[in-house]
Amino acid sequence: MNDTVIGVGVIGCGEIAQLMHLPFIDELPSFRIAALCDISVGVIEKLGAQYGVEALYSDYKALIADPAVDAVVVCTYDHGDIVAAALAAGKHVFVEKPLAFTPEEARPMVEQAEASGLVAMIGYMKLYDPGYEIGLEKIAAIGTPRSIHIHDFAGRFDTYGALYTQVKATDIPADVMATSRAAAAGRIEASLGPDHAGYVGLYLMLLMLGSHDLAVLRGAFGSEGRVRYAQPVGDSQLLAVLEFGEGVPCYLDIGVAHYEWWDEFLHVHGDTDEVRIQFQNPYWRQASAVVTVREAAPSGASEQRLPGVPDTAFRREWKHFADCILNGTKPRTPLSGGLADLDLAVAIIKAMPPRPA
Question: How are strands ordered across the β-sheet holding 226-232?
């Protein structure tokens, strides 16, 4: 690495890598795309031609060994072995959420990262959303909340395809992904224990969708959230009651819907004020969360709408990653946060009625 440009190796070149990470790595002057790795040869050949990258790998170990790679971004389905290998090779790491599938496999990753002295960040892009940052300031002004509500009913995921060009893999045998997913499910069953092993699907929904919401809560109220109640609602929705601080209740409901809109918010009630952070569709670039504040005014009540600046949270987190590597800034989303969210996710599932596999 020279003084200003970080060579990035991208491991896993699927949807999120193509739609969000690669364009911003290519755009930002602090980075260059040094290497690409994917099990689809067709995908990396096309992306290599698109971005002018000659170092193309089908084995992540070969990419990690490439001396031109200073940092890796991990966008695969299963992250643990790749993160461990990258840190052991002295590479900075940016890993997509969730950090791992279980706390047991995440804990040594966190310990290794903290001992390495390298920059290791988890991709919780909502914590870099400019609207969320405005909302945090308004929430802090409330003081101790009376109640918290976080809600996430994911809208349709097939509506943004027309916005972007994505190279789809056609050369991956179907059993490859099936084997990987089955192995992860087995580890999750073991982590949840025999009484709750039947919740693997709901737990995965909580990780893949709801881990962002757990991170948003932790960013606003700390990591001491405790589970007081949890209940499944069918196979793709759950609700839970958490508690923060000195008995502040938090109602959490997460599920998959088929709305034409994106339905995700954090609403905080104080004694005299309310703050609501309404998140936008994460696949819309330049669209940040919108904050609504209700507060007392001389005439009775005031409602103020505060749109975040037009910027993309994914781009902001990459700029922060560069700042951490080049200037020694402390990461805002270290791997330890991902572990805390996994611990809370397991606690939510284990608070549900027993459901053996």
Answer: 226-232, 237-244, 248-256, 147-154, 263-269, 274-278, 290-297, 300-307
